[in-house]
Amino acid sequence: MVDAIEDTMRPIPQFWRYETDEKRKEALKKVYVEETLPNYLNNLEKLLKSNNNGEGYFVGESLTWSDLHLLNLLAMLEVQVNLTDPFENYPKLKDLAQRVSAQPPIAGYLAKRPPSTF
């Protein structure tokens, strides 16, 4: 699961950090947002649904690294790709992100963490 989420994130640095040509950067971002990302998010949503119909976590019945890593993906999509609601069309992913964010230690950290582009 972590690898699947990591694969979803892997193209982001190509246009966010490494590409210096603005036209090429925008072209890479457009392909990612319109073609690559929806494919990955559809697959993640299907994987989540395969465990308790997506009502719990990616694996088993408790929070795992995979669920935490989903929050990392969400942050990257919001901050580095500038997407307002990346999981809008993926209700199970959106619900999972909200469940994980609501865990007391995580919620406490999120409330205090400084803004960052990373």
Description:
The chain is mostly helical and 118 residues long. The chain has helices at 2-9, 12-18, 22-49, 65-79, 91-101, 104-112. The model has no long low-confidence stretch (mean pLDDT 94).
Biggest sheet character: none
- Our measurement of the CA-to-CA distance between the termini, rounded to an integer number of angstroms, reads 22 Å
Helix content: 55-70%
- For the residues shown, what is the average pLDDT? 94
Radius of gyration: 15 Å
Number of strands: 0
- The number of helical elements comes to 6
Shape: globular
Order of helices and strands: HHHHHH
**Which regions have little confidence, pLDDT < 50, spanning 5+ residues?**
none
- Counting helices, strands and paired strands, the structural category is mainly alpha
Percentage beta strand:
under 5%
Quaternary structure type: single chain
Blueprint of the fold:
Layout: H1 2-9, H2 12-18, H3 22-49, H4 65-79, H5 91-101, H6 104-112
Which short descriptors sum up this protein?
118 residues; 66% helix; mainly alpha
Question: What's the gist of this structure?
Answer:
With 118 residues, the chain is mainly alpha-helical. The protein has 6 helices and no strands.
